[in-house]
Design a protein that fits this description.
Largest sheet: 6 strands, mixed
CATH class: Alpha Beta
Radius of gyration: 15 Å
Order of helices and strands: HEHEEEHEHEH
Strand order of the largest sheet: 1-2-3-4-5-6
Number of strands: 6
Length: 155
């Protein structure tokens, strides 16, 4: 029998894999983290996972879930953060930390994908209100919305 943390980890991994599959269906190529910056000069859509982006608000190293480069759509890169909560837990309590890091420490624009039925009441509404074109966190989607945006050519 899986413990709550292991089950949550699997759900998070499944959501990240779905995001990766969508990106690849759009023509993005997965590249190793240590080659991402150099390969941008190839002018090919690409992405990397668990990419080191600097120091967070606690002065510790932070990694983003995905970083995308697209020569026409995201020449300055786009970060995607993925948060999944299928049962009561603590991921929604981490949302303010994520927002603070995105807006104060990330050097690229970012979107957040939140999905699952286990978020505390008000958590998803709150994070959606934090998104703005005037900050680094430009949008918040659930997986259905992300798939729709992807199918219309946004990414």
């Amino acid at each position: 029998m899986e413990q709550g943390g292991a089950k949550a980890h699997k759900a998070g991994q499944a959501q990240e894999q779905e995001i990766a599959d969508i990106l690849e269906s759009l023509g993005y190529k997965l590249v190793p983290q240590n080659q991402f910056i150099a390969l941008k000069y190839n002018e090919q859509p690409m992405y990397s996972r668990q990419f080191h982006i600097g120091k967070g608000i606690y002065d510790t190293d932070i990694k983003c879930d995905f970083i995308l480069y697209h020569p026409g759509k995201y020449p300055e890169c786009l970060i995607i953060e993925s948060k999944n909560q299928n049962s009561a837990g603590s991921v929604d309590e981490k949302l303010p930390y994520l927002v603070h890091n995105i807006n104060d420490r990330y050097t690229h624009k970012a979107i957040v994908i939140v999905d699952g039925e286990g978020f505390k009441k008000g958590a998803v509404s709150w994070i959606r209100l934090q998104a703005s074109p005037n900050t680094n966190m430009i949008a918040v989607y659930n997986m259905k919305e992300f798939r729709k945006q992807a199918s219309t050519g946004k990414f």
